[in-house]
Amino acid sequence: MNITRRTTLGAMAATPLLAAPAVHAQAPTEIVFNYPIAVGGPIPRLIDGYCEEFARENPRFRIKPIYAGSYQDTLTKTLTAMRGGDAPQIACLLAVDIFTLIEEDAILAWDDLAGVEKPWLDGFYPGFMENSRARGKTWGIPFQRSTIVTYWNKDAFREAGLDPETPPQSWAQQIDFAQKLTKRQGDNVTQWGIQIPSSGFPYWLFQGLTTQADVRLMNADGNRTFFNDPKVAEALQYWMDLSQRHRVHPGGIVEWGTTPRDFFERKTAMMWTTTGNLTNVRRNAPFPFGVGMLAAGRRPGSPTGGGNLYVFKSANAAQREGAVRFARFLTTPERAAHWGIETGYVAVTPQAFETPAMRAYVADFPAAAVARDQLPHAVAELSTHENQRVTKALNDNLQAGLLGRKQAGPAMADAQAEAERILRRYR
């Protein structure tokens, strides 16, 4: 705080030796915040604005955002900095990184921090907390969270004789719709019926299918996987059949980053992607579009996804206080609603959806509530010890199946064998 002492010239002349010493303003405590930029949109502008607003309301603290690239890049840079003695104090990293961060002894449990109360921790959607808690503690605070949803081109539906307001409701109907939506000129496909990305996060998109097949990929302790369950192979076979049998989906590997562009350019009539792309699609789709829950197999469902806030052990007492204040600041109902409206990510608390701003937004744009409404059917995203190695084993075998190099059953058996080798020592 700046303190200005006003002294008359007369008083100064009368008591020159008693003049008060200057009082210097105390510099605010700096808190480094590592943040991933992986989805298109005005993310840096929003985060910068939140940091500036927080500093105005909390002048003892200054948040310094560091934009570190993709989630993977951010995790790598964060852990490298930590090992070099220069870790951030708070970071937004994938919720599934929870076991990796615990193994590295990198983070603090939020329950153990001053200023954290149980009602706040229990105020988030339960579906998001499945990837936020382990060993009886809360390690991550939901912030940039999502589910997978279906986007469809309503004009393409009309042209194909389909109801433009109704997406496919089942696996069989999804194939039927995709067949009607696929456009061919000889051997050349000008519009695919559906695209499900298989690069970037193939395991996550695949979990949409395994959830619908009514099977979970891992246990809650993160030390066992079930990739060789027959229902998992069934889910992969369905994905493979979209291109290899029904020819309604591009063959090979479909890029995560270019799938929205393919949708905008009418190269695909339906796509699966994160609800975090909702604002991007709303701003850039040159046609009316719909957003719906994923088609059901034995059951409906999607994995949750996205990032949590973690506090690092590198934070001193003042920085920990500031980190708690900042996390609470970001997750107030009003700010969570603003974040959801501006980005398309799911506002992380029921209270956020009760704010006037969010109520008005959903009334004007009902698609904004689809991911929230899917949460009761959602499951935790794949998360295990040594998560990157385990997901790589699964991703490699998923792509082998989609490229036609392996059959579904053997591919998942191979993925399970590698995961078992990695995880055995954690049991």
Automatic annotation (TrEMBL):
GO cellular component, one term: periplasmic space
Main location: periplasm
Top-rank taxon, per record: Bacteria
Family: Belongs to the bacterial solute-binding protein 1 family.
Keywords: Signal
Subcellular location: Periplasm
Protein name: sn-glycerol 3-phosphate transport system substrate-binding protein
InterPro entries xrefs: Bact_solute-bd_prot1, SBP
Signal peptide: 1-25
